[in-house]
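Protocol step 4 of 6: structure prediction from sequence.
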Amino acid sequence: MKKLKTLALCLSLCAVTGLAPAQDTVVQDGIAVKPLSRMRVLAPEETVNEAARTQYTQMMSEAQQKGVLVPASDPQVKRLRSIAQRIIPFTPRWNQAATKWEWQVNLIQSNEVNAFCMPGGRIGFYTGIISQLKLNDDEIAAVMGHEIAHALREHGRERMAKSNVTSIGARVGGALVSGIFGVDPNITGTIANMGGQMLVLKFSRDEEREADLVGLDISSRAGYDPRAGIALWRKMAQLNQGAPLELLSTHPGGETRIQDMEKHMNVLLPLYARAKNTTVAKLPSYQSTALR
């Protein structure tokens, strides 16, 4: 009987961890992406969005109390929201759920070089990323598109689901250990708090590649120069030489990413040119403000 219970527990663990078999990539708009993960069922959309809504509201409330939430009347906030308004209409191409998202854009006064987009379309920028990198509108759009793309491709939701699987696996494993050795299964961990994970997610190289390219796809369609993505990450690398950036700790950089963007300019530049009612051949060279 004990062997049958042990076998049942093992099969349960295998069933849980086998929810996301390897999936082939698909090509959409000239960009190779993986289908949205089946693991998402372990982190229901409503639960994830509610956790994001709660954390975002708390963050903005705390920022306001500390006097660092930049008011809506500020030119930089208007600038960010104007860029977002141009990008958002193109987001459903990559995730139809975006049509129902409660989009918000806010700016926090901080030297931190960072930005984020939580599930459900809640965007936050820190003034440091704009001022220290001397971002023009195209580069802000590249940052915003990148962060939005993580949400569209549900990278955070997938990672939360995987965290839940790990926790479930720990629980099943704990019960298995308890059955064999008599160890208290309560020593295993509980399911991770979703809200607390929103801003500390570390994405894989593949996820970063998707976010780079999908982000530039939607920003290009909105009329922002995709070459800004290359300029942006070169600036990031340059600024990071002085002191490690928080953004690069969760968004690993590297020449490989720039090369991927360069390889896709044949797809992205025509989108931008069309949005500007011109041709690629007539586009002027890209201009960016140097850090030094």
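Step 5 (inspection) to follow. The first helix runs from residue 2 to 17.
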